[in-house]
Amino acid sequence: MSDVTRRIDRWKAKYSPELAKATCDRIYEDMVRRYEDSVVALCETEAKTRQVLNALGISTCMYVPYLSYARELFKLARQRGITGTSFAMAAKVLADKWQARDLDPVALETILKQVFGSADPGP
Questions:
Q1: Within 10 Å of residue 74's Cβ, how many Cβ atoms?
Q2: In 18, 66, 88, 110, which residue has its Cα 20 to 30 A from 122's Cα atom?
Q3: What's the pTM value of the predicted model, to 2 decimals?
Q4: Segment (H or E) for 37
Q5: Which residues, 6 or more positions from 104, have their beta carbon under 8 angstroms from its beta carbon?
Q6: What is the pLDDT of residues 55-83, one digit of tens each?
């Protein structure tokens, strides 16, 4: 038990609410800027996705799962180091997942191409 007690004591010695607040205060403006940028980009992605769905004649009651697919692609696209073929392969896995949930594969591919500018990597 001494190891557990020692770990707790060391954590208590290192952590203080004042230090945590000072750190947050120091990086707050950058956090706000990055969050605002992300929300703007996500809203643009959702708007483009809605345009694609509207052009394809998808019923508005089916927009929710297609928007969820687009959000997953958005998250994938923003991860560092995932571009090109790696992104296309990961997007294929997501498309397969949503296709298994009865979404139209043509609509999924169209969202991938028109909203994210990526092509199907093939089999």
A1: 19
A2: 66
A3: 0.77
A4: helix 17-56
A5: 56, 58
A6: 999 999 999 999 999 999 999 988 766 77
